[in-house]
Structure formats: structure tokens, C-alpha cells
Amino acid sequence: MKPTFLGEFGTVRRLFRKTFLGPQALAFLPAMALAAFWLGGEPMLIAVALGLPLLYLFAGGGPTDRSSISTRLPQPDVVNKKTACDMAQSVLDDARDSNLSAGCILIEVQGLDDVSQRGGETAAETMRDLTLTRLRNMLRRDDRAMRIGENRFLVLLGSSLRLDLEAMLQMCARLQSGIEEPASVENTMQYVSACIGFCSSTRLPSNATGQDIYEAAAVALTEAAANGPSALRAWSDKMNAAHKAQKSLLGEVEKALMNGQIQPWFQPQLCTSTGAISGAEALARWIHPERGIVAPAQFLRCLEQSGQMNRLSEVILQHSLTALRSWDKAGIDVPRISVNFSDVELRDPNLVERIKWELDRFGLTPQRLVIEVLETVIASSPDGIVARNITALSKLGCQIDLDDFGTGHASINALRRFQVHRLKIDRSFVTRIDRDEDQRRMLAAVLGLADRLGLQTLAEGVESVGEHALLSQLGCDHVQGYGIARPMPSDNVIDWASAHEDKIKQARKLGRDAS
């Protein structure tokens, strides 16, 4: 199909504008004015002054410019992905015509579900409208903001001279601060947080489309959301490769779970008073036939996305009880085994009956099973099925460990209500306690609180002899970490436990000889 005259004219206008009227042309304006004055005096200077606006109009500038028209059009409040990509394409085209940059920012607002629970859906919708208004008030005239779905917002940054990483980070931090400002909705103060992923056109190939920049920002947002509340992430080639690998794992993880590639490895726990093995924690490991050991953070996220966390719980529990039975037959004394249960698993209404049935099938008492629950789960689930399941498991005889203690917001009343038996102190409290006085005082305060509440303590992440010794002196009951033993397959536990028992016997013998 032959190009029309108007199409050719539009192409010439864009080329002329990009070449002669882009930001680089500003440097030549003084020289042009001076040359006109020297060559023709005031008449020539006036002619140049009147001619430049005409040239600008010819190139598509002024009030008839496409970008100016688009910014005056009303912005939709809510769009779908296709419309968002089309709008991103328009913004990219405008920026390229002017030899400038554009940007795409995706924002996930967290906490709107809590707003809905406290104040109803009307309050949540009011908060969404307020968030959109706040975004638009913080943007320039050529920028756009709109909603995509319930909790996600899109910001398109129009033509800009400088949109490098530093500028984008500053912009995103300002938007995040504005969104997270507390707001009074229906006489109640509401608090939300915002994860942000972003991408500038400067980070993409010159032929990138609106869909490309949108999906790049979406990849960055996924990475931000995986790193906790209020995280900011910029898209990069490395991140894109990791995202593709994650999608590949997502397609394999369900089959790996069925084929037995995902199994628990076990990390021993020691009693600080006797040095004897006091338990072992089951930690999920994926031994991939080609990739080797896949990091838990990668495949656990895939299992959560594919809705396979309950199936993972069943697999880990069965293998853990099998391992406990095999250690008993080998004469290895491992009093109990700890299994982690996520929020999703603890919402299973059949959880207690399933655990009871598995214990009966293996001929094990409930006292030998430790249920590890994250502190954040207890803090966010004061009532409901999660609370009922934890309480029922405690009454059954299972020990309840509060994992990552000190990183959440569980109250003392919650510790009592959920009948927690032991606090598992997060490694952030343990690291460097043998070298950092402030760290040592903080840990001592946590241990003192546990002692007054009548709770046992287990410190995780012990990596040095100095940390182990100091924890014993401070009164921590149990320890685990790489400084004691790394996670290992169940068969290796037998060899490790035998060697550890020999060390204890040798130490006792040396003690008697010294006396």
C-alpha cells in the first residue's frame, strides 16, 4: 500500500521536529539570533523571531501537538491491561518524537483488604479514589495515573529530558510517601503501604513497545512485592532473566512435587545444657535434575502461586514422620521434629484431623511433632480457622513454636491464647552477639521475657562457636544454625548424630579424666 501524502507529510514533520526542534536545538538559538542580526540587522532578527514559531507549528508543536491534545483529554480512572499498554505506547511515541524519555510505574497498594474488613467496601473504595487523587496531584501535566484492578495503580510519565535511575527512584519514593500518608476515612484513620516497580524507556531497546515497558514494570513490581512491604524495584536485564527462570520453574514445580524431587532436609537442634540433640527442623529442598538445588525462596513462591502449599505440607509431613521412624529404628535419639506451616496451610479446616491420622499411621505420639508458626501469622489471625487449628493442635499434644520471633507484632496475650510453647528467636537477634554489646542486651531482654512467661527458647542462625557459647551463658534453651550443622538428607542425619554423640562421650570422658 502506497503511503499517502498526509502520511509522508507527518513523517517529514516528525523527522524535522526531532532533528531541528528537539531539546538539542535550544543550544543553537542564541547563535541563530546573533547570526541573523549580523547578517541582516533588526529586520532579519525579527524575521527569525517570527519564523521559528511557524516552523514549530509545521513540526507539530504548539496547541495542535498530539501530546498536548492527549493531556487535555479526560483520563480514565480504571483501565484494563490492553488499554494500559495502548496508553503506554502513545506516551512512548510522544517521547520518541521529541527525542526524550518516558517511564512506566506500577504500584501495588497493600492494606486495602484490611480497610475493607474494618470499614466495609465503601471505605476501601474511598481509599482507592483518594490514592488515585493523591497520585494525580503529585504528577506533571503530561503524566497520567489510573487504576488497574482493585489494588494496582499505573503511572505513565510523559516526555522528560532526564529519566535515569536516580530520577525514577526519587519520583517513586515521592509517590510512595504520598500514598502511605495516613488518611481519615469515615472517621477512622486508615493506613496502607505501597510496593512499586518501574521502568524507564532508557533501559529498553529503541524499538520497545508500550506492552514491553508495561510488562517490564510488572516484573519489577513482582520483585518488589516479594521483598516485603514498601519495597521499590527497577527493571533490569538481570531481573528479567530471573523472572523468565521463575516462570519456567512455575511450569515444573507441580510435577517435581509429584515426582518426589521436593523433599525435606533436616537441620539438627541442640540443647545448650547437655549438648544433646533436642530435635530437628524439616526444611523443603528441591533437587532439580538439571539445575541442582533450587533456592527455597524461588520454588516456595512458585508453589504458592500455583496453589500447591497444602500439597507441600502433606509431602513434608509424611517424609518427616518417615525420617523420625527411621532414626528410631537406627537407635538415634531425636526427640521431636519441627515442621513449618504457612498461613495457607493453617486455614485448611481438615488440618488437625489430617495430622492426627498421619501420627496414628506412623505410630508416633503428638508430643514428637512441633508445629512452627510464623509470628506474623499469629499477629494477623487473632480469631478464625487459623486460631482454632493452632489451639486444637496444642490440645492434641503437639508443641507450638513461634517462628521468627521479634520480626512481627504478636502480643503477649496472643502467646497465651495460642498456647505457644517455645519462642524461635530470629537470627537477626543472634548474629554478632559475641561482638556487639547492644545486640547482646537486646537478646538478653528477649530471653528474660520468655523466662518470665514460662516459655522455652530456640535461637536460629547460630554460625560461630562464640555465638553458641554466649547463648548458653545467657540461658537460651536450644540452638540451631550452620555453625552447628547444615540441613542434610535424612540418611545423613544418622551419620552426623552418631559422630556428635561420640564427641559428647569423648568430652565427658575428658572431663572425668581431668577431675
Automatic annotation (TrEMBL):
PROSITE patterns: EAL (PS50883), GGDEF (PS50887). SUPFAM superfamilies: EAL domain-like (SSF141868), Nucleotide cyclase (SSF55073). The chain crosses the membrane at residues 20-38. InterPro entries: Cyclic-di-GMP_PDE-like (IPR050706), EAL_dom (IPR001633), EAL_sf (IPR035919), GGDEF_dom (IPR000160), Nucleotide_cyclase (IPR029787), Rev_trsase/Diguanyl_cyclase (IPR043128). Residues 246-501 form the EAL domain. It comes from the Bacteria. Keywords: Membrane, Transmembrane, Transmembrane helix. The keyword Transmembrane applies. Gene3D superfamilies: 3.30.70.270, EAL domain (3.20.20.450). Residues 100-237 form the GGDEF domain. This is GGDEF domain-containing phosphodiesterase. It comes from Thalassococcus lentus. The lineage of its organism: Bacteria, Pseudomonadati, Pseudomonadota, Alphaproteobacteria, Rhodobacterales.
